[in-house]
Amino acid sequence: MPLEEMMWVEKYRPKKLEDLVNQASMKERLTPLLERKGELPHLLFAGPPGSGKTTTALIIVKEILGDLSSDYTLSLNASDERGIDMVRERVKNFARYSDRRDGVPFRLIILDEADSMTADAQTALRRIMEESSQFTRFILICNYSSGIIEPLQSRCAIFRFQRLDEGSVTTHLKEIAKKEKIKPLEPRVLSSIYESTNGDLRQAINLFQAASASGELSLEKVKAVTGATVKGRVGDIVRLALDGEFENARLKMVELTRVYGIPERDFLKFANEELTNQKGDGLGDAIKILAEYDYRLVMGAQPELQLTAMLAELSALKNRKGE
Ligand SMILES: Nc1ncnc2c1ncn2[C@@H]1O[C@H](COP(=O)(O)OP(=O)(O)OP(=O)(O)O)[C@@H](O)[C@H]1O
Ligand SMILES: [Mg+2]
Predict the structure, then answer these.
(1) Is residue 28 very low, low, confident or very high in pLDDT (cuts 50, 70, 90)?
(2) Which of 42, 190, 212, 309 has a CB 3.0–4.6 Å from the CB of 217, allowing a cystine?
């Protein structure tokens, strides 16, 4: 079985804009742009993981280039470990070509994780974009538009993708269940999938597929696949920190946010819920620390650094008490 059939995230990846779940305002603004293909501006997609950014970029490529898409599209990941210089070289080489076949208005370059580029690299990219704009359009993809330098942002039409809400995710999972002939799903199973994947539809579908691999889908299976629920994991991390085990807590936090894609502010929300469920003195101090870092994240500070600093402060509470 080819991979696209095996993995439901691929098998059910939307092929048309109207099949995308949610993202209504994005679709509304993008549709007219696709009707005048020759005038397409550079695009910047920003939004959380598993919300449809790459999927939308692929749909646009198909719409504009049709069967010739593979010849006229370059897809790169800006965080490629071979380095930004390699990325820049490849973009430059690709953008330079001006040959065009009938019906091909320009070449397309999809640059994923563009917010991982340094400001210098982005400045160089800006120049490449300017020089090649007659023959080339860029689709830049990132999680946070704040990671993209202003001059690049101003050269793109910006589209913001929203984290998917529970209703849309469960409706989508039910449709997949129907096609895969999985028995009617219990609402609490669906809500537990949503709870542990936080609006990331890719993760939700993956979890759903893994949990129903052996036939019947149950709450126990979902829990077994996720380990404990995300909230539980955040609770563990907070407890580790409060026990003074900073390094251990930090590693687990990085894993949870990077591998499982838990948004940083949700981390704080769950941490708060877990803390208020606990008893004991020092609770007030801990909550004050959480509130301080919540504020910093809202102000746009670098999330992983802030959460690390927060865990350090929580650990310090214990060490202060222990003196
Ligand atoms: N809005 C959506 N509608 C329907 N399916 C979606 C949507 N968003 C994500 N999916 C599902 O999740 C999979 C991954 O989506 P996609 O690659 O577009 O995410 P992304 O936003 O690029 O995430 P990342 O930032 O992690 O790269 C898709 O193959 C599809 O099955
Ligand atoms: Mg993507």
Answers:
(1) very high
(2) 212
Count CA atoms closer than 13 A to 123's CA, side-chain side. Answer: 3
Integer Cα distance of 188 and 191 in angstroms? 5
d(CA 80, CA 268) in angstroms, rounded, equals: 30
**pLDDT tens across 276-313, in order?**
877 677 788 999 999 999 999 888 888 899 999 999 99
CA distances from 10 to 23, 174, 183 (A): 19, 17, 22
| Nearest ligand by distance to the CA of 201 | 1
First to last CA, the chain: 62
Rounded Cα–Cα distance for residues 184 and 236 (Å): 33
- Residue 260: per-residue pLDDT: 60
If phi > 0 it is left, if psi is from -120 to 50 it is alpha, else beta; for residue 160 that is beta
Ligand showing the shortest atom-to-Cα distance for residue 52 = 1
Ligand 1 atom with the smallest distance to the CA of 112 is 27
**Cβ–Cβ < 8 Å for 196, 222:** yes
Task: Go through the domains of the chain in sequence order and give each one's CATH number.
Answer: 23-160 (3.40.50.300), 166-222 (1.10.8.60), 230-322 (1.20.272.10)
CA distance 55 to 164: 14
Other CB atoms within 10 Å distance of the CB of residue 18: 9
Query: For a substitution probing ligand 1, which of 8, 202, 203, 208 has the most ligand atoms within 8 Å of its CB?
Result: 202
**In this prediction, what percent of the chain has a pLDDT beyond 70?**
93
CB 7 within 8 A of CB 15: no
Say if residues 311 and 246 touch (Cβ distance below 8 Å). Answer: yes
pLDDT in tens, 186-200: 888 899 899 888 899
